[in-house]
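Thread title: Can someone regenerate the structure for this chain?

I was given the following input by a collaborator and told the matching structure tokens would be attached. They weren't. Posting the sequence so someone can regenerate them.
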Amino acid sequence: MTKHTALHAEHEKLGASFTDFGGWDMPLRYDRELAEHHAVREAAGLFDLSHMGEVWVTGDDAATYLNTALVGNLAIMKVGKAKYSLLCNEAGGIIDDLIIYRVSETRFLVVPNAGNAEVVADVLAERAAGFAVEVRDASSETSLIAVQGPASEAIVSAVTDESQHQAVRDLAYYAWTSIEIGGVDIMLARTGYTGEDGFELFLPNERAAKIWQLLLDAGSSHGLIPCGLAARDSLRLEAGMPLYGNELGLDTTPFEAGLGGVVSFKKSEDFIGRAALEVVKAEGSAQVLVGLSGAGRRAGRSGYAVHAVAADGTPGEQIGQITSGLPSPTLGHPVALARIDAAFAEIGTAVAVDLRGKPEPFEVVSLPFYQRQS
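Best answer:
Regenerated them for you:
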């Protein structure tokens, strides 16, 4: 059965078009996805992310346990900070990418992707055996709302008491704090998936509609509009951020996905997948994730083949395929993420993308494609 977030009725009122995403009926767009994309780049967008998971890890062994279950070093995190990490299997394949928040010395919040939330909760519970920890899946009772864009700080401040404005301003990137909005206790994080400044608000389902409306009302004078998954995807691609199921998966190691830096071999814990990943690091990956920029107007899409280019400019052997691609609304030309043979991954390398039988010139470029100025 398709699941609904606590804000589904609010999206219906706003005339959203819906799509299935990880078993959830989610807003794809409200009006024009290009307008939603540009609103986030120029002003602000409001997103319902309540399909994401929330798994609490609590106990004296919480830090040590997470260092065993995940590839990153979570034990060195300070209270009030967040960290991006990966949950891998024994072969080093990525089960999911996650954001972890340290709430206290013995309490962490793990946020998995929507389609993987139940799997992640089950794997974390399984790996907790022998540790003094409790793993509790709170996904079904928690809503998550994001405000993304240059005006996001002003909008969040507008719905908080003046005594909390400094806390909002001082909140660092990849950190969180507790605030109150409209009498509702909120866990406010400064993270995001768009390449812009932004905030994510964790709160109980029963208060979600109230906070959603308060943000819409406060943001109207700042240019804020509600945004769906279509704009979220184009924004994250411009920012060079991976999507599970496209760039990441069980058949992909962190090194193939350009996330080798997330893996900590310095920590003492023998984390799941460590032995396999040590081999990959030592031997190198046959394929790696790169950014591609097109000179024309036609965009490559997920699954399209990428070919080497011969000295005379003609397409040669297939060297990989696109994982995500579209015409960049901000940059005005096609961009794509692609997994290709490592030998062709040098910046500036010319490649050809097979666009339904017609080769289109692309070039390997550095990531991200788009980066905000401040």
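The first strand starts at residue 17 and ends at 21.
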